[in-house]
Inverse folding.
């Protein structure tokens, strides 16, 4: 076997120019395919990270009824204690309690349904990075006559209000009574997704409690972990401790994100498969030529008593080596390219990428690709190489030794 | 002396041509252990065909080849491969060697396919290359050897695995006189020392004069079968 590997490897270097040409084709195709994949996967992962660190956090806890009916009356009993216990866990980085409810926002120009998110600013600072995304104004540092509200830029545009404007929020309190109150816009934020900017407004949980004339009603506890690898274990631990509550991870909270990620990876694999399929014909041609011009030599091998299965394997190995060498070059080039562009990112606003924001994507792309992806592509390269090799290898073993050695 | 190869009314007709070619006609021959035989005859007389058929590389149209009392036509393809590997050494007219392997790797090749222990294999390969006068060229690839040196490596390879017999088709055809004699000396010596049966084709008179038995083919039929006393 060892000798077969040695012979096959040396054989691909016999016609250096021909081998290099096809290796270059493989390398170029893969560099392109891998780089595009890294760009897309980077975009997807960025979007997910962004969602986790600005909106979702890793895990959220709710009252089960809150899931379909986002009202203050579905409060989490003993939320303060739960949050305290969570904060003491090693794997947990930060915990935020929120009074979330569906409601309405209105300005003299427009009214619109929103999710009103009553937060503890000091907890929120550690959990979501909202305060870093302020476009105008401040994040709950003012203590004016009117309670503060922080709204998205897109919503501010729609409402035609700005920093300092007065808007009215309407919602139901925990007893189901309708409450309407004026708030002053203290700040506006930017998010990668304009839908999120339009659908969420932030107020102090304390202000909501004051308006409802009772204690704070916490309907949501968000947990940010130190490391995503603890996601499942923490979730199941929590579920055990609080069986009466709904405990969901980010991918359960936003299943579309997970789906988009998987779908993107799948599509990219298909793109690479198409590239490889094209290249495979080139590989087939190269190997077929090398088999045909070695008729005599292969005849000698068969005459000497080298089994057909070994000759077949030899041709397959040659093809796999040829393809993998080209593939390795392609990987190397793609990795260099990715690492060069990784720190600064690719600014798509230069080519009209601003519109990406409307779909929830950041216009600056940081290409990245996991090892797993490279492994899958490597497996594909080997599979395509074997497919391309079958015809030439069959040709090789169909040679009649007596005819072949006469050539 | 023991009979190694026997042919019984061996015929080979090529029908893939416009007119059928009778390359071998009713050939009945016996080869005994340790013989040193030249198959001679004009071009197209069937020498290559004969060697290919008795070596199991080609099938006869009629008749049988019996080696060590086994009719090789009864063997399955894989058995035949194995049989060739274990019992027959081949030397072709040219381009015998695997271009990407060094001389010593080429000589080891058959033994490798036979799964001989590595140590034994290497030692034998070196010994054989030494015998054919190429101990200086162990790690040289065929492209850097002269035609004569390449044929010597091929002979070393054919004999290294100690086959029952070696079939050589015009082994000296591409060699100058000196190399041809040199190769023949080596073959004769190995024939004597290792008692390996050697059958080779040639139309080179210089070579014919060295053989102990000379079989002349004319138009595929045995014309003469002469034995000579030589040392
Ligand atoms: N594959 C083949 N198909 C058809 N005819 C063939 C084939 N091989 C050989 N022949 C014919 O069979 C006859 C014997 O050929 P063979 O090669 O055995 O002769 P040879 O004695 O070895 O000749 P040379 O001295 O030129 O090598 C020739 O007439 C040749 O044309
Ligand atoms: Mg011939």
């Amino acid at each position: 076997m060892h000798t077969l590997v040695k012979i096959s490897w040396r054989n691909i270097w016999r016609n250096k120019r021909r081998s290099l040409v096809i290796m270059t084709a493989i390398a170029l195709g893969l560099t392109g395919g891998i780089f595009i994949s890294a760009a897309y996967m980077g975009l997807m992962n960025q979007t997910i990270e962004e969602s986790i660190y600005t909106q979702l956090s890793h895990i959220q806890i709710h009252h089960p009824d809150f899931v379909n009916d986002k009202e203050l009356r579905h409060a989490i009993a003993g939320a303060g204690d739960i949050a305290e216990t969570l904060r003491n866990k090693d794997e947990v980085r930060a915990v935020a309690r929120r009074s979330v409810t569906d409601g309405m926002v209105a300005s003299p120009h427009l009214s619109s349904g929103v999710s009103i998110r009553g937060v503890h600013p000091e907890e929120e600072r550690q959990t979501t990075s909202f305060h870093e995304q302020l476009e105008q104004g401040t994040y709950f540092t003012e203590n004016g006559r009117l309670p503060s509200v922080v709204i998205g830029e897109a919503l501010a545009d729609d409402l035609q209000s700005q920093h300092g404007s007065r808007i009215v929020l309407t919602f139901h309190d925990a007893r189901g009574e309708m409450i309407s109150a004026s708030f002053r816009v203290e700040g506006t934020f930017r998010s990668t997704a304009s839908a999120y900017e339009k659908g969420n407004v932030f107020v102090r949980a304390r202000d909501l409690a004051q308006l409802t004339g009772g204690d704070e009603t916490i309907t949501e506890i968000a947990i940010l972990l130190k490391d995503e690898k603890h996601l499942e274990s923490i979730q199941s631990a929590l579920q055990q401790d609080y069986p009466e509550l709904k405990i969901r991870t980010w991918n359960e909270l936003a299943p579309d994100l997970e789906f988009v990620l998987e779908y993107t990876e799948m599509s990219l694999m298909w793109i690479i498969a198409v590239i490889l399929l094209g290249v495979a014909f080139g590989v087939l041609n190269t190997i077929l030529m090398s088999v045909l011009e070695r008729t005599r030599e292969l005849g000698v091998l068969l005459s000497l008593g080298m089994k057909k299965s070994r000759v077949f394997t030899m041709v397959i190995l040659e093809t796999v080596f040829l393809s993998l060498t080209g593939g390795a070059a392609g990987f190397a080039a793609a990795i260099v390219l990715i690492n060069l562009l990784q720190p600064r990112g690719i600014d798509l606003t230069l080519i009209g990428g601003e519109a990406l924001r409307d779909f929830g994507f950041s216009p600056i792309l940081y290409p990245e690709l996991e090892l797993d992806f490279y492994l899958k592509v490597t497996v594909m390269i080997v599979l395509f190489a074997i497919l391309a090799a079958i015809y030439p290898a069959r040709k090789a073993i169909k040679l009649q030794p007596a005819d072949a050695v006469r050539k | 002396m023991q009979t190694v190869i026997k042919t019984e009314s061996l015929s080979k007709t090529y029908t893939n041509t416009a007119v059928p070619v009778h390359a071998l006609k009713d050939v009945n021959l016996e080869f005994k252990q340790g013989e040193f035989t030249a198959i001679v005859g004009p071009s197209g007389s069937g020498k290559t065909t004969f060697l290919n058929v008795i070596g199991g590389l080609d099938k006869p149209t009629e008749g049988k080849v019996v080696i060590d009392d086994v009719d090789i036509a009864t063997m399955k393809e894989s058995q035949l491969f194995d049989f060739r590997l274990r019992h027959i050494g081949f030397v072709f007219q040219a381009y015998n060697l695997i271009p990407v392997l060094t001389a010593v790797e080429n000589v080891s090749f058959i033994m490798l396919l036979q799964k001989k222990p590595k140590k034994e294999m290497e030692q034998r390969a070196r010994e054989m290359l030494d015998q054919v006068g190429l101990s200086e060229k162990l790690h040289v690839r065929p492209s850097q050897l002269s035609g004569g040196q390449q044929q010597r490596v091929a002979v070393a390879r054919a004999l290294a695995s100690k086959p029952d017999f070696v079939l050589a088709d015009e082994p000296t055809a591409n060699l100058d006189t000196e190399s041809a004699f040199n190769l023949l000396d080596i073959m004769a010596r190995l024939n004597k020392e290792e008692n390996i049966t050697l059958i080779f084709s040639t139309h080179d008179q210089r070579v014919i004069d060295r053989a102990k038995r000379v079989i002349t083919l004319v138009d595929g039929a045995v014309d003469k079968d002469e034995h000579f006393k030589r040392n």
Summary: DSSP finds 14 helices and twelve strands in chain A.
